[in-house]
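Data deposition worksheet. Section B asks for the primary sequence of the deposited chain exactly as it was used as input, without tags or linkers unless they were present during the calculation. Section C holds the resulting structure in token form. Section D is free text for depositor observations; keep each observation to a single sentence. Incomplete worksheets are returned to the depositor.
Section A, Depositor: J.P.
Section B:
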Amino acid sequence: MNNLDDMLLFAQVVKLKSFRAVAEQRGVASSVVSKHISRLEKHLGVQLLIRTTRKLNLTEAGEEFYHHCQQLESGVALAEQAVSQHAEQPQGLLRIAAPMISGQFFLPAVVDEYLKRYPEMKVEMVIKDSFQDLISNGFDLAIRTGTLSDSTLRARLLVQSRWYAYASPEYLKEQGTPTKVTDLEAHNCLQFKYQETGPHDWPITVKGQPDRIKVNGRFQASSLVTLRESAIAGTGIAFMPVFLVRDEVARGELVPVLQEWVYRDVGIYAIYPNIRYVPRKISAFIELLAEAYEKHCCAFHSQRFHE
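Section C:
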């Protein structure tokens, strides 16, 4: 690598025709520049410059060597230009892992805006509620709900999402409406396979303190959308995010259950590799994500029962 650096230094000396001018540009002593040129000549086994008190002249070998150094300079400039284009104008493929709710109901509009802003980009989205390993599966970023435990990744909070328990009016009419947390033991509690605390553990709040309760049920699914539809059909009580059921609650198809005790606020994050320089294609998409979630943040919340 020293030889490459010395070649670029040599080309600069020839262009400026002065050791001192190069030294001033680089913020070093003239003797340092001279030392590097001497080291290069020793490595090549030829003299490149004839140095007099008034000027520098190229030897025949120096003329030929300078021609190749110019090509090296040009290659470095082209490489820097190519990288800067990636930094300023994203191009290439962006691979995203997203849960079903975000992928089906929220992200399409963000992707559309992203592709319009950056015509050199393509997007591939994999929709799965289970967590995907970003590094081993080659994803650029993922949307995840819950805490981050992997130190090789970075996370940006997009929004806090409120979850409640819901059931259909028909189910509650037939099975009775729970009035206290322990009443859930007698109900068919529909379970989300990928819930962070586990499908059988529902978060509760007792006297302002977070806790958990074990629930039982005869139906478990890997999709929150499936649980919502099952709850509407009257199968049982499901613990779901407000965002997913706002319309169904407004239409009276679902009713919050034990709203003052059974709830949680959980973060939705953009997850991406923990690298020093985040590619522009990733940071640009995260910026659009953050704007979109901020714009629609009210859709992820509802008034607490006791407020």
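Section D:
The longest strand covers residues 153-167.
Residues 60-88 form the longest helix (29 residues).
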